[in-house]
Amino acid sequence: MTVTRQETETAPAVSVSPSKEPKRFRLSHWDARYTPYLIITPFFLVFGIFGLYPLIYTAWVSLHDWQLIDGNQGFVGLANYVELFGDTKFWNALFNTLSLFVLSTVPQLLAALGLAALLDRGLRGSAFWRAGVLLPNVISVAAVALVFAQFFGRDFGIVNFLLGFVGIDPIDWRAETWASHLAVSTMVMWRWTGYNALLYLAAMQSVPKDMYESATLDGAGRWRMFWSITVPSIRPTILFTVVTSTIGGLQLFAEPALFDPGFAANNSTGGSDRQFQTLVLYMYEKGFRLFDAGYAATIAWMLFVVVLLVALVNFTLTRRIAGKE
Amino acid sequence: MSTRLVGSVAATLAMVLVAGCGGSSGADGKIELSLGLFSDFGYDKLIEEYMASHSNIKIEQRKVKMEQHNTQLATQLAGGRGAADIVALEEGVVSQFRASKDKFVNLAEYGAKDLKDQWAGWKWNQGTADGGEFVLGLGTDMGSLGLCYRSDLFAAAGLPTDRAEVAKLWPTWADYAKAADTFTAKTPNVKFVDTGRNVYKAILDQTEEGYFAKDDSYIAEKNDKVKTAFDTAAALGTKQQTGALEPFSQDWNVALKQGSFATTTCPAWALALIKAGAGDAAAGKWDVTTAPGGGGNWGGSFLAIPKQGKNPKEAYELAKWLTAPEQQKRIFKETGNLPSQPKVYQDAEVQATVNEYFSKAPVGQIFATSAESLKPTYRGTKDSKVGPVFATALTRVEQGKQSAAEAWTQALKEATDAAK
What we know:
Chain A: One of its GO terms (cellular component) is plasma membrane. The complex is a heterodimer. By secondary structure, chain A is mainly α. In chain A, 74% of the residues lie in helices and 3% in strands. Chain A contains 14 helices and 2 strands; from the N terminus they run ααββαααααααααααα. Chain A has a two-stranded antiparallel ribbon with strand order 1-2. By secondary structure, chain B is of the alpha/beta class. Chain B folds into 2 domains: 26-142 and 299-349, D-Maltodextrin-Binding Protein, domain 2; 145-298 and 362-419, Periplasmic binding protein-like II (D-Maltodextrin-Binding Protein, domain 2, 3-Layer(aba) Sandwich), CATH 3.40.190.10. Chain B has helices at 2-21, 44-53, 66-79, 91-98, 121-126, 151-156, 163-169, 173-186, 196-204, 224-238, 250-258, 270-278, 312-322, 325-335, 342-345, 348-351, 363-373, 383-398, 404-419, and strands at 31-38, 57-64, 86-90, 128-129, 134-135, 137-139, 141-142, 145-150, 191-193, 261-267, 286-289, 301-304, 338-339. Chain B has a 5-stranded mixed sheet with strand order 2-1-3-12-6. A 4-stranded mixed sheet of chain B has the order 9-10-8-11, with helices on both faces. In chain B, a hairpin with a 4-residue loop joins β4 (128-129) and β5. Mean pLDDT of chain B is 90; it is low at 1-24. Classes of the chains: A mainly alpha, B alpha/beta. Chain A binds chain B through residues 2, 5-6, 9-10, 13, 38, 41-42, 45-46, 49, 68-71, 146, 149-150, 153-156, 172, 174-175, 261-269, 272-273, 288-291, 293, and chain B through 1-2, 4-6, 8-9, 13, 65-67, 71, 74-75, 77-78, 92, 96-97, 99-100, 103, 243-244, 246-251, 254-255, 258, 260, 384-385, 387-388, 391-393, 395-396, 399-402, 418.
């Protein structure tokens, strides 16, 4: 829409003064030079209003004793941050967040890579399979969580029922830290593996086929070709998925929240002993259950810093691992 | 050109924002009132009637889950917009919102104080502040305690099944625990109670002071009643006599359907939840009797009017009508929500009400008797922050993660933080 508006408004401006060639030249020069910026301006405007402003405002709130309903109760400087660093619940939430992130992202991206390689081999009815892997991502997270919460039920859950066949005692999936992390990670993997696989697949299809042909002539096996040709060729896409998964994974909220049966009631703590309380869940508890907006804002800012750091580390690591250039 | 572009983007945004807010008078010139509720207040028919008799008023109900309702309301009050014209405040959080009473209309300005005598004294007081000068909300229902039990499971365990006999089985909570032992010895595969958390809450709701003294000072660590309630409930958990269920959750519904627990504490409003969860197959199996330890109140709500609404006068008239005795009586007959007004629950028709699903139990009489004897617990401003800490502590005991003593120590520490 913005593009068409741009053109229609430029045209008359030019036709009013047809005699002055230099100005016309200047105009078109100006046009070529600045129009791209103009076109992306709306994004930055919207980002400014809905992204940057809240970010700065949150920082401002975090420096105050701020109650959700009653608002500003006075400037406290860095007191909230000092309290946060001594808060065991914060470190617990940070640990859970990182643990859930690793448990869900690493297998997820590896599985996506494998899945993409399979889809790339030209299966029969490829459109069907490709659409199929995206299906879990299309289904609303609430529905997914509801179903998985039933799967991992303690008394009547299907997972425990199946484990019973191999002689494993029923597991209380919400009670234990590792069990709850496993269950929540499964949910995340279910939702995002297919999505990432499609991204990889798209990248794989642009890898020149002659590289594989010459590798075959040189006697390379499938495995060798996958690691030496495919993976290095789709490196930018891998970097992209690693960064987006990092951002998404560290902000995990809906899955653990809905896995906790107390969330619908009054106890949104992520388990009886905060076993699977992520940073965002903790922020929610502080801000929206305990109405301590100042502290919640502090958690939000720390989360921002953590995401930034982890994304940076991941980016560097992945660039190293996925091949040198 | 760029300014025009900016202008058009800004205009579009402004339009979206304005459209999102909505007006309070509709296009047809009617006054629109919204009601922000959770669960079932039984207002559907009443609202239709009200609109029929007040042709200039249009009413919209917004129902969400309770936790969501409270959170939404808090953000709407903070933002100064978006709240319904009339909002329900549940008894557990009313003290929390009372602390922000400047965001609400003082109903005394519209003459609410004249209505005072309609309600049980304590119910009226819960909805007021400043020694009764500030009227925050008008009482809807109340949640006097009863105890629900499965008579077929009791029979299987060799316990009495008649509700008068069952009541004699447990005058106190210690007797209730004894009954649990008898039950478990006979039928070890069925849990005696759904969750220790409800037992704990019920015992605490029978005391006048819980976590906070009446002067709003925090007393949980020195109040023996809190400790006793915790120990009683935790002992049931340690002996694995509880289902370790999250109350009113999906798992709780499944357990009801499977008949995997035999008793649960039930305030009047819980009957509908049990019926919905257990389904028709369990009709006539559940019964209601007197709770151990006497009367207590759990739940019940108030209707309050946020200041940000545009038609406080009309909203007040509607709230007044919805909470009036005639309407409370009709709601009781329809949903079973117990009226918070003595004249209504003492009414012969209410007293004679039986609940078909619960083995024709005389619920009107059971809950009204319980209401007569109850002394409500004082709810501190931070009650709703402290309470959940003890609830999760009991869950840790039930899950076998901690001993009762460990859970208690951790809960006290967390509660002190929450009460700060």
